[in-house]
Amino acid sequence: MPAVLNSNVASLWASKNLQGAQSKMADSVERLSSGLRINRARDDAAGLGIANALTSQINGANQGVRNLNDGISMVQTAEGAIAAAQEMGQRILTLATQGASDTLGTADRTAIRSEMRQLVTAINAIGGRTKFSGNSLLSQAANGTTAITLQVSNNTTDIVTLAAGAFRDIGVGTLSGGAGTGTIASDNTFGSASAGGTATAGSATTAQASTLINKINADASLVSGSFTAIQTAATDYITALSTQRSLLGAYQNQIEFTVSNVNELSSNLSAARSSVQDTDYATETASLTKGQILQQAATAMLAQANQMPNVILSLLK
Q1: Is residue 293 part of a domain?
Q2: Residue 24 in domain
Q3: Dihedral sign for Cα atoms in the order 34, 40, 44, 46
Q4: DSSP SS3 for 2
Q5: Does 202 reside within a domain?
């Protein structure tokens, strides 16, 4: 190498290597401090794209789990309301069984039928008050087809559909043809028995409830046969409620298994994202140590290189 003064080649190379070592150290420090191997697109453009796609899936799955848990709460709310109606249906059946016995007189049977009417009023009120987030849960008509959907992930087609049949109205619909014409909720007289007041079905379950109240209103004589008919109607209504309640139970099981699946999906996606974008501390600390040694060596060599032009002075003496 010629002895020149204007261009200290050795110093330039040492400076270049020092800058490279410092740049790598800076990258290592950034990765170790942030915990991320990819802090900007230049670190790994393809990896950044993969990590962002995985993040979208993870966020969608996590929100889906929250949606599904809300769905479980909603289904439990509806089932609890039906369970209450079922208890009252059982009470009506018990009263009808009592009334069917000829040991009772007309006054006793009148009192029994009065309690039955109040119970049906209470059943009808359940549907109106059973709401979740302001939405009525038990309001589907017999021909209603409005299903309830739960979004499971960020994939628009990934949903759990709860059929309208699980959310049928459990009340008795509207009364007509008697002195008590009107809705059950606003008129608990149901019309006089002699006037022949009837209830109109508003849904599949309501059809059984309507039959029940019509049987309660059917016969002014209050003979045992009237209560036998009420027994049959009450049994059918309880069965209808059981069918609707079992469907809600099946949906709850479906949702719970879906929650388990989505939680596992989220965990696996998080592990995949971690392998792409998170810092491997064992590898990165080794890289940092290497960078520190190279920086010190380059600094020492740069100092040596900067002294090399001094030889020219000895030639000029």
Answers
A1: no
A2: no
A3: positive
A4: coil
A5: yes
What is the tens place of the pLDDT at every residue in 16-70?
Answer: 887 888 888 888 888 888 888 888 888 888 988 999 999 999 999 999 999 999 9
DSSP-assigned letters across all residues of 57-92? HHHHHHHHHHHHHHHHHHHHHHHHHHHHHHHHHHHH
> Alpha-carbon distance 259 to 64, whole Å?
8
> Tens of pLDDT along 111-148?
888 888 888 888 888 878 888 888 888 876 555 567 88
CATH number, domain with residue 192: 1.20.1330.10
C-alpha 31/C-alpha 43 separation (Å) is 10
Distance CA 196, CA 213 (A): 11
For the chain, the domain total comes to: 1
Task: Name, in order, each residue with C-beta under 8 angstroms of 175's C-beta and a sequence gap of 6 or more.
Answer: 181, 182, 183, 184, 187, 190, 191, 197, 198, 199, 200, 213
Q: Tell me the C-alpha distance between 79 and 246, whole Å.
A: 9
Q: How many CB atoms lie within 10 A of CB 17?
A: 17
In angstroms, the CA 99 to CA 213 distance is 15
Q: Which two tokens stand for residue 135?
A: 């939405």
Tokens 């592990």 identify what position? Answer: 271
Q: Find out whether 254 and 160 touch, Cβ atoms under 8 Å.
A: yes
Written as six digits, the tokens of 226 are: 């009237």
Helix or strand or coil: residue 218? Answer: coil
Residue 177 lies in a domain: yes
* Of 6, 9, 3, residue with least CA distance to 316: 3
Instruction: Look at the pTM and tell me if it is higher than 0.90.
Output: no
Q: State which residues form the domain around 240.
A: 83-262
